[in-house]
Every structure is written in structure tokens, then in C-alpha cells.
Amino acid sequence: MRASKASADESLNVFPVPADSPGSPIAGANGVPKEISLPGEARPFHLANSAFWPYVLLFVSSLTLSGCAGMVDMVRDVTRSLADIDVSGITDLFGSGEVQMSPEQIAQLEVIPSTRPGWEASVEESPAAVFLPVFGDGAVYAGGPDGRLVRFDPASGKASGVIDTKHPLAGGIGTGDGMLLVGTFKGEVLAFDEKSGKPKWTANLSTEVLSPPHAGMGVVVVRTGDGRIYGLDSESGKRKWVYQGATPSLTVRSFAGALIADDRVYAGFAGGRLVALNLSNGSLVWEAMVSRPRGATELERISDVTSLPVLDEQQVCAVAYQGRIACFDITAGNQIWTRDVSSNAGLAMDDNYVYVSENRGGIVAYDKRDGTSIWAQDLLNGLKLSAPLVHGARIVVGDSQGYVNFIRKDNGAIIARSGTDESAITARPISLPNGIAVQTRKGGVFAFGA
């Protein structure tokens, strides 16, 4: 792993963006949102689309080479440039492409009130990698595969600057220790000063960085596509430590990254494992099983933790694909409670409940003390959901039709459902001082009031 300091004479990457410039990466910069039409049927997937063939190769190879760990690794290597390698996603490509919802569901969703975005903007479209905006230093930052990080005013959506990283990016933007952090498909981690936009350093790791790096207490924590977690020095980018656990032969591609809390790092792994690491040196504090693999075939036995855990002062909770949700004592990793549920999107926690976005499209709330089921919202069944966000008295979740769903925390009722640009919202919404924001597959950045 190599780390290089940015040269002293390197030019500043941030430059002002005129609001009326035809080349501005923002739409609706004056704060007046354009009207968003309701999504119709899903767009058909044409065989002529060149992006389709790598997925055909992956799918056919997976069928042909099933059960051979070495060959599965080879297929994974061939598809390194594809970020969205998800078992359910592969199934969808070969299905009808239509959302499986009943007429009754559709009718009920159509009468739910909608709200218009306070502002909207755009960055580069990302058909494969998962990008999400981030709020830091009083601004919203959003990026795309073209390597441009755009800074927006959180109140008006006006673009105030751009950092051109000059690298194709593989995932969203991370923050911490006064930096903006991004990763590439080549395993590079790029650090920029959050205030000036000047490049600080570049580190080269083992393989692609699909999730946002984050920093705290002088350590940048980065997760790579081969399941390793790196701790880098915040000032220089030099490697301080690396952690790697055992990996099954077949896994679900994860964009989750790792969670920094106080002096620990928490991360879920393939095979249903959750670990707590020491932030300063990467040593294992404890390891627990969220869900144990079960089934006759390798596909059935996939039970990976593919989303970020959530925690409070006493416990940390995680959820597994084709598995369970489980909560553990934060000190020693002893299990407190567990329930059967499947999610590769993720979960959220507040003072009373843990909320899970299920694979089938439902949202479930559990009492975080003992796992008692509080409510279940099934009206979105058939859609793919983002991880939920707790925002005030509401839960906010994006879906595969490009809607932002606002849900009451106490009873699970959907109180508003607002459209964006008809493309999927795959990443968790983020909180702003006066609302929330989402980023879509098409690169749309939409902000909604509190």
C-alpha cells in the first residue's frame, strides 16, 4: 500500500460555479423545483445496451461454475469494474423488469399526499455504483463516477464549487477529521481538505473501494471489495493497520463500509459476522454471529451483513441478507435478542425502536430492548428500498421507483410519498439542518423540507 502527499504547487481543485452557467451541474439552482411526473412502468432493458453483456457473463458463469470456490473468485475478478453485483439484482435483470405490486397497493399509494422538493440538482449518472450525498462543514457534497464532487448550499441548492478529482469514483463521499474522502475502482483513496478543496494525499489499497471512507480520532477507515478494513493515518494516508476475516466462496457485494463510534470500528461481514475493532490499531475487540448460513446450496447459504450496523450507548444491532436481525451488548458482544428477517438494505435506530427495510419491500419496527415487533408496513411490498433514516417523528426511505417515502415512527403509516426522477434511490437519505436529501441512480440530488 502506497501513500503519496499532494505536491505543494498543485493547483486548487475547487472553483466557483456561476448559477446561470450553461455548464453548471445544477438544475433548478434558483431554488424553484421543476414539476416531477409520476413514474410509469419500469424502463425496458434492451439487449442492445452494451452494459447488459457483463451481467450475462456473470450470470452464466455463476450457473456454470457454481460450487467451485476458485472459479467463483475468477468470475468476481472479471466483474471488478461492476459495482452492483447483487444476487437479487441479477434475478431482476432476467425478469420482466416490472414492479410486482397488486392493483390494490397501487391504488392506495396513489392517494397518499406528495410534497415537492425544496430544491433539486444533478451530478453524473451512476447506473452501477452506489452514490450518496453527505452533509459537512455547512454544505451538501455530491459526486458521481466522473470524479467531480459538487458543493451545494443546503438551503437553496445553489452550487458553490466543484472538486475535480480526475479519477473515476466507485462510491459516495465520506468525511471526518476535516476531510472529504472518496475511493476508486483501482483501490485508491483520495483525501481533500474540506474547507479549501485542496488535495491532501492519495493511498493505494488492495482492490476497489465501493463505500465511503470515514475518519475519526486521526484514523481513516476504509473497506475494500475483498473484505479488508484498513486504518490509514489521517495526516499522511499511510497504513496503520489492516483487518481481514474469513470470507465464504460466494458473497453478496457490499457497499456498507464501516461505522466509527468512539474508539471502535464496527462492521458486518459475509457469513453473518459482526466485528468490533480497536480504532487505533485494528485489533479485534469481539466478534459475534448475526446469522448463521443455512441451506443446501451456496446461494441458499448466503447470509451476509451487507449494511452498516446501528448503535446506542448500550447495544449495537445488525441485519443479514437471508438471515436475522440481532442486537449485542456493545462492551463484550453478548447477544441480547434476535429475530428472523432478511435485508441487504439496512436498518436505523432511535430512542425506542429499530427499523428494518426488508428485502421484499416491507418496513418493520422492533422494540430495541427485547425485539418485540411494534408494527409492519407492507404497502411498499414489491419495491426495493433504501436503508431507512430516522428524521424527527418520521422514518424516511427511498425506493426503486424513485419515490421518497415519509413514514410515522409510532404506527408505520405512510404520510407522504414524493417523486424524484423515476430512477432508483438505493442509498440511505441524509439529514440536513432543515430537512433531508437523496441521490438517485440518474444523479439527481433532491432536498425536501423537514
UniProtKB/TrEMBL annotation:
Part of the Bam complex. The gene is bamB. Residues 146-377 form the Pyrrolo-quinoline quinone repeat domain. Signal peptide: none annotated. One of its GO terms (cellular component) is cell outer membrane. It comes from the Bacteria. InterPro entries: BamB, PQQ_b-propeller_rpt, PQQ_rpt_dom, Quinoprotein_ADH-like_sf, WD40/YVTN_repeat-like_dom_sf. It is found in: Cell outer membrane. The keyword Membrane applies. Pfam families: PQQ_2. This is Outer membrane protein assembly factor BamB. GO terms for biological process: Gram-negative-bacterium-type cell outer membrane assembly; protein insertion into membrane. The keyword Membrane applies. Part of the outer membrane protein assembly complex, which is involved in assembly and insertion of beta-barrel proteins into the outer membrane. Keywords: Cell outer membrane, Membrane, Signal. SUPFAM superfamilies: Quinoprotein alcohol dehydrogenase-like (SSF50998).
